[in-house]
Amino acid sequence: MPTPRFWAALAVVTACSDAFTSSPDPGDVLDGPIDGLTPDELAAFVEGDRQFGRPFAPADGLGPIFNNVSCAACHSADGRGRPENVLFRFNGLGGPQLQDRAIPGAVPEILPAGAAVSGRLPPPVFGVGLIEAIPEATILALADSLDADGDGISGRPNWVTPPPWVPSDEPGAEPGPRLGRFSRKGQVSTLLQQVTEAYHQDIGVTSDFLPVENTNPQTSRAAEAADRVPDPEIPAATIRSVLAYIRTLAPPAPGADTPERQRGRVVFHSVGCASCHVPVLMTGPSSIPALANRPVYLYSDLLLHDMGSGLADDRPDGSASGVEWKTPPLWGLRVMRDFLNGDAFLLHDGRARSIEEAILLHGGEAQGARDRFAALTPADRTAVLDFIGSR
Ligand code: HEC
Ligand code: HEC
Fold first, then answer.
1. Which of 149, 184, 187, 277 for a ligand 2 pocket mutation test, highest count of atoms within 8 Å of Cβ?
2. Residue whose CA is closest, atom 2 of ligand 2?
3. What spacing in Å lies between the alpha carbon of 199 and ligand 1's midpoint?
4. How high is the mean pLDDT in each 10-residue block of the chain (391 residues)?
5. What is the rounded CA–CA span in Å between residue 236 and residue 316?
6. How many Cα atoms are found within 13 Å in the side-chain-facing hemisphere of 278?
7. Alpha-carbon span 387 to 41, nearest angstrom
8. How far apart are CA 330 and CA 307, in angstroms?
9. Ligand 2 center from residue 273 Cα (angstroms)
């Protein structure tokens, strides 16, 4: 039986485009295209948007086990998710991801006792095409794994091997270990993998890339009896359509630069936030000209940092340890609450309810910056918060 949560999620899918009473400015939405797309790229964007919002039912291939019915149901309005959309990663039978829902006839997974569990709030999906277009060498130039410069901050790349079914002409899937730059621990190097596994793991939908259904190993009940839709349930073209969409999704435009925000920017740098939240990185070449050779104001180094025991999940992912997290971009924060009914959920599991709380929970390599922030005058603190909150 679908749970009330299931139907609530379905309602979100159909309601998100009605969140505004009047039409918002182009820079205020989380689901607008980047500037400069060709008419063909714009048409692909519109079709991919439709696929991203498409809710699956059992008759369309949903399940047998799954987490939610569409991409948009978890990535609210293409932005960050809510605690009810948190995914659980764990080690043990049924891992690495808990599918806690099932279609009729199938059995949802349960967490084995004692498993190391990592809750992951859905990150925004805007700007991922720009992130993808930043050359590995640009990110690696920021890495300082052994902290050779002695500043207490050692950004580390998560080297991952893309699965063999990712075509090697996809950015991030070239032969050899690749720099992981997607998901909370940077454990994924290609967007095609991220999208294909989202269908497969999160929605229970097979594709040309992953044609064998994900089933519950904790039960002997045959999954085929529940999901009778022939595999693959979607063609490679659907994956590529969603890929074209998220690749060309623009990050929201930052707010106007007031004198207070300019001061906030200076303090942000002086207390050391910018060591990890690097304000701007340049993209390299791209098959989409609008993404190529341009600055990306993401406020991230896309590297892993030890954030201390308070934020640790004690569950390694790729070469990321149980205390490491990838620096998340600080963008879209200006409009975050507009899309979450006035709420805010920050950090990897959504535990922080405001930007200030997120900063004060920083530890490990960020302890120094956190303490310098906490020691600021109230006026300087407000300026930093106003600056970040305007990104
Ligand atoms: C059940 C909720 C859920 C659903 C459904 C879902 N996602 Fe996600 N998504 C997440 C979570 C959680 C993460 C972070 C995972 C992690 O860190 O391990 C994520 C990460 C991502 C990322 C990486 C973003 C970044 O910057 O690192 C992309 C891109 C993405 N999802 C796209 C999609 C697409 C496309 C779909 C639909 C095919 C989809 N997601 C469906 C929860 C979901
Ligand atoms: C050592 C690197 C590092 C430094 C220095 C640092 N951060 Fe972070 N920041 C991170 C990482 C990594 C996370 C994600 C932690 C998590 O998800 O548990 C994060 C998360 C955040 C978030 C939440 C973003 C979100 O989307 O959830 C905000 C806001 C933030 N940092 C602001 C700041 C500010 C302001 C400073 C300076 C006072 C600062 N950070 C210093 C690495 C750093």
1. 277
2. 276
3. 9
4. 37 41 74 95 97 97 97 90 92 92 95 91 97 98 86 92 96 95 98 98 98 93 83 98 97 95 98 97 97 98 98 93 97 91 94 97 98 98 98 96
5. 31
6. 21
7. 33
8. 17
9. 8
> Is residue 389 a contact partner of residue 355, using CB atoms and an 8 Å limit?
yes
Q: Which pLDDT value is given to residue 365?
A: 97
Q: CB-based burial of residue 119 (10 Å sphere; 0-12 exposed, 13-18 middle, 19+ buried)?
A: middle
* pLDDT at site 9: 37
Give the type of residue at 41.
Answer: E
Pairwise CA distance, residues 296 & 282, whole Å? 6
The residues, any chain, with a CB within 8 Å of residue 41's CB and separated by 6 or more, are: 33, 244, 248, 288, 290
Please confirm whether the linkage preceding 96 is cis (ω < 30° from 0).
yes
Alpha carbon distances (Å) from 139 to 157, 316, 373: 8, 21, 26
Q: 74 CB under 6 A from ligand 1?
A: yes
CA dist 63 to 67, 103, 225, Å?
9, 6, 12
Q: Is-contact 132 247, C-beta < 8 A?
A: yes
